[in-house]
Amino acid sequence: MSALVITDLHAQVQTDTGPKDILRGVTLTIDSGLTHAIMGPNGSGKSTLAYVIAGHPRYTVTSGSITLDGVDVLAMSVDERARAGLFLAMQYPVEVPGVSVANFLRTAVTAARGEAPKLRLWIKEMKEAMADLQMDSSFAERNLNEGFSGGEKKRLEILQLGLLRPKIAILDETDSGLDVDALRVVSEGVNRFREATGAGTLLITHYTRILRYITPDVVHVFSDGRIVETGGPELADILEADGYERFTTVKTA
Amino acid sequence: MSAVTITPPMDLAPRVHSLDPDAFSVPTARDEEWRFSPVDRLKHFFIADPAAGFVTATGAGINLVPMAEVASSWIPIDLPSAIARAHVSKAGVLEIPAQAQWTEPVIVDLTTTAANSYQHLEIVAGHFSVATVVVRQTLTGNVSGAIIINVGDGAQLRVITVVEGEFSTALALQMPIIVGRDATFTGALATLGGGAVRVQSSVKYSAPGGRAELFGVFLADADQHVENRIFVNHDQPHCVSEVLFKGALLNPGARSAWIGDVLVRKDAIGTETHQANRNLLLSEGSRADSVPNLELETGDIVRAGHASATGRFDDEQLFYLQSRGLSLDEARQLVVRGFFADVLGRIGDTQWRDELLLKISDRLGITPMEEIDE
Ligand SMILES: Nc1ncnc2c1ncn2[C@@H]1O[C@H](COP(=O)(O)OP(=O)(O)OP(=O)(O)O)[C@@H](O)[C@H]1O
Ligand SMILES: [Mg+2]
């Protein structure tokens, strides 16, 4: 059993005009086996939360804490967090020219597992993982994310999720840019991962359509840098029907 | 002594061509052609050394011939090459017979034991021959001189030159390339060693329809100066030139300069030319100069372009890789290998692409994993 515990987290982004406060007191615990959905308007700070957990250098935590199984995550480097079992499927995966998917995946899996997988077994594992996500095996030879469509990038993120098997997965708008078929394939990939590992999952999304495939245990409304409402799966339907207004206007009223 | 030819001062072509060293003034940092060069580290090339040796070329099919018997049409264009030409006693000559189809690369080793050595190597590809030549220039002392490449009509010649050696050494090399009718030349120049390395590659077409590709990779470490000067003289119609050099500057004090001059003469209609230089600065305190020049005397061309960019690591790329568990070092190494992958891929010889990638990885301290090739 693992637990990612976020307590009263405040964070800033470094901008050209100086630091800007974005997270204003996020408190959230994600336990193994549970899936949390976070929904909230554009610019409310959802991706910032994801990046801060992963350790992106552009963000500075000004107060609060993040621990994984009691260990201080904020004291870890980006790669240490990954090796400790945190994974972020990014909203905008980064293109890395000249680095093949196959080479990258093997290097990442070697880092995650602490030893290089045997070449023969590895090729089989990679091919099966690709087939599961209905990715053509030719993607292995392509440069990492370079020239990938939005949907292809998201598939590759979930492919990595399945191979790296983290304790806690954060999926930042993995559903955006996917057509209906791709959404199903990717959601099945996430579900296979959840069932196989019993990991905790934080799903950031704008839409309930992914929640039809991946049922959340808890739904949070995120607004202006913090969680303003928490409920069960039914909260997502209310948000879909009524929008965020009633949660976001509270502050300005 | 031979006549001195002086070309009009406005164009990019070298001003002086002469076999007589006295026709050249001693380079200084104020000269346009030398302003990026560490003239102090090259100064032993500016006066003839009576004790100098000559660079020996060895390899299958190489003939070592007295310089007096070499019928070279190339005329030196700077002081170091004129001195080397005047004093080199023997030349290496590799002739690829007309129509020959060499499937295996021919290796030419250039070595010397003297502190200062003069070099003259000629590679002559006969009509319609196909060959790959790998020139290993290993520096144990200072070397000045030339590698002269003549690509006959319809020939396809690939020359991969690998410069390695001690950081205490210097190299001043002229590499003139003459491309025949409908011939293709692919050059790859990998500068991985040597202290102060200045190579000038000059392409000239002897007839229409030629194609010249010049690819380069270099690594510059602290106290290394790597200078590549390219001159492509499009004076024949319907010729193509494609130039891509990529370099990584590894440590504080590393220096590189890339000067790419392309001149498209009035008669060179239907020209296609593209040149680019990209540099990656891996540390503060290193410097890469990059100067592309394009001079068009006709607008009746297919395409002409140049690009130059010098950048640092992309933080987003490093973050992405690190967020997958790779250490900062692993992430950097992957990005640097990736940076060189495209230009190495364009050499068109997979064995030497891999060999060079291995050498680069080696210099970067990477232990490569077994390759995944299906
Ligand atoms: N590098 C940056 N420079 C300036 N502002 C930034 C930067 N990164 C984030 N912000 C700002 O922080 C706020 C939160 O951004 P964030 O990306 O976390 O929102 P989000 O909730 O993920 O939005 P979306 O739903 O559109 O993905 C926004 O106002 C955004 O403009
Ligand atoms: Mg976002």
UniProtKB/TrEMBL annotation, chain A:
Pfam families: ABC_tran. InterPro entries: AAA+_ATPase, ABC_transporter-like_ATP-bd, FeS-cluster_ATPase_SufC, P-loop_NTPase. Residues 4-249 form the ABC transporter domain. Keywords: ATP-binding, Nucleotide-binding. GO terms for molecular function: ATP binding; ATP hydrolysis activity. PANTHER family: ABC TRANSPORTER I FAMILY MEMBER 6, CHLOROPLASTIC. NCBIfam families: sufC (TIGR01978). This is Unannotated protein. It comes from freshwater metagenome. The lineage of its organism: unclassified sequences, metagenomes, ecological metagenomes.
From TrEMBL, chain B:
GO terms for biological process: iron-sulfur cluster assembly. Residues 114-339 form the SUF system FeS cluster assembly SufBD core domain. Transmembrane segments: none annotated. PANTHER family: PROTEIN ABCI7, CHLOROPLASTIC (PTHR43575). This is Unannotated protein.
